[in-house]
Design a protein that fits this description.
Layout (H helix, E strand, L loop, with lengths): L1 E2 L5 E2 L5 H7 L5 H24 L1 H13 L2 H14 L1 H4 L4 H8 L12
Antiparallel strand pairs: 1-2
């Protein structure tokens, strides 16, 4: 996060890992590798959405109507379908491995 011109907190673009990487000086190889990690992850999510529009629509309807039981069941179905993403190594660990020694602080709890 950063402070905007008016002193208000501005939300960074992307996720926290992308925001942190923008603050680091990376080599072209490191930048390319981290970009590929994000692209591969985004592709998995895009494929999930593309293949599960009916499921996501049902989830939206259940949410709008407050049907908690249906939402729970749909969430379990979605989690099963997302297992390829959920079972990946944590994003932070993938990024840490992609960066050279000393680039990513060890205090990042990776």
């Amino acid at each position: 996060m950063r402070l905007g011109f008016a002193g208000t907190v501005e939300r960074p673009e992307g996720n926290p890992e992308q925001a942190a990487l923008r603050l680091l000086t990376l080599s072209d190889i490191e930048r390319g590798t981290t970009d590929r990690i994000f692209a591969a992850r985004a592709l998995k999510f895009d494929r999930f959405v593309e293949r599960n529009i009916p499921l996501l629509t049902k989830f939206g309807v259940a949410d709008a109507t407050g049907d908690k039981k249906d939402m729970a069941g749909l969430l379990v179905r979605a989690a099963v379908k997302l297992r390829g993403v959920l079972l990946d190594r944590p994003l932070r660990n993938q990024l840490f491995d992609a960066l050279g020694p000393g680039t990513w602080p060890r205090s990042a709890n990776c």
